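Researcher: Final request for today, and then I'll write up notes for the group meeting. The sequence and the SMILES for zinc ion follow.
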Amino acid sequence: MSIHRTHGIVLRSRKFRESSKIVVFFSRRYGKISAIAKGSLKPKSKFGSSLELFTRSSLIFYKKENRDLHTLSHSEALNANEEIRKDVVKLAYASAAGEMVERLVPNEEPNETLYELLDAVLKQISLAERPHLELILASYTLKMLHAVGYGPQLDSCVRCGKDLADEVWFGLHSGGALCPACHNQDLHAMEMRRETLELMGKFQSVSMARLRETSKADEFSREAADILYAFVRAQISEGAKIRSLDFLERMRDSSLA
Ligand SMILES: [Zn+2]
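Model: Predicted protein-zinc ion complex:
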């Protein structure tokens, strides 16, 4: 057994036995980890509010070699992100952000860029007005795809390399933008407008904070979001679900969000 210190964001937790919880964190140094927090459901637990969903905490845990479940010995909240838990719509967006990470990365694979992105998207979701949530999540989705090595090629046709004109498709299986001559070669090509392609370029180059301050949601942000979510689904194993993303889209389409 060895002792480790890191910062981590709570992705989810479940009750374990009478008074404990098993918590899944995305941590800065170790990636996605699971730890048991013994006694954390008791009143006056030493863990306080540090294990609330989407809280960022400093952690000390004991790691058992060749085991997936470790033992949390100490945690202290650094950033509660409480605005997210107060608003069901923000909670839906944050849950989708967290679950996409969970589905795309294996356990205990460190990825500090991804940790920083997750921290940043939760902060922006906390601060954002509702109309900006979709832009923030879509921008995060593209940045996250790059951080895990699935970043789509958008500056020229991913198949033939030609410059893109007004007619553009996004090839879910090709991994990027397609020109009119190539789109038929990808059975899962989605047509998109030139403006949507340009917006995706902005998602990649502009920070989420700046995007929240300077952009407004419109039909192109919706189209970009739909394409990027479909692309994430194309990367996970067939039949696997990203339930919170499914939920988010149903909620959005029923115009609650
Ligand atoms: Zn082409």
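Model: The helical segments are 82-85, 88-104, 112-127, 133-147, 194-205, 208-214, 219-235, 243-253. The beta strands are 2-16, 20-27, 31-37, 56-63, 69-79, 168-171, 176-178, 189-192.
Researcher: Thanks, that's everything.
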